[in-house]
Design goal:
With 95 residues, this protein is α+β, with helices and mostly antiparallel strands. Helices cover 38% and strands 32% of the residues. α1 packs antiparallel against α3. The chain is globular and about 35 Å long.
Length: 95
């Protein structure tokens, strides 16, 4: 079943986070991910507001998890650590 990779982000260092974004996009695509939303308008109804929200669709939970643990994504993630506050989760789509 397909899955969604959902990230809620507050960027604290634009330059370092820009390096993350430059590397993360290709890593996500390489692992079968396709972006549905990157930033854009949102309405926060509950919980902590994060001004950047990203959603990518993957073929499966396993594909999304493999992407996260891959060397190329982890290399990207090194730039986001200390440059952002984030929550990231993977949710299976039950169609």
């Amino acid at each position: 079943m397909p899955a969604l990779w959902i990230a809620h982000v507050t960027v604290t260092d634009d330059e370092a986070y820009g390096k993350y974004a430059k590397l993360a996009g290709p890593a996500i695509t390489k692992h079968g991910g396709a972006f549905i939303a990157r930033g854009g308008r949102f309405v926060q109804l509950e919980g902590k507001e994060r001004p950047r929200n990203v959603v990518a669709r993957f073929p499966s939970v396993e594909a999304a998890e493999t992407c996260y643990h891959s060397d190329d994504y982890q290399a990207a993630l090194n730039h986001a650590r200390g440059a952002s506050e984030r929550e990231l989760l993977i949710v299976e789509i039950t169609e």
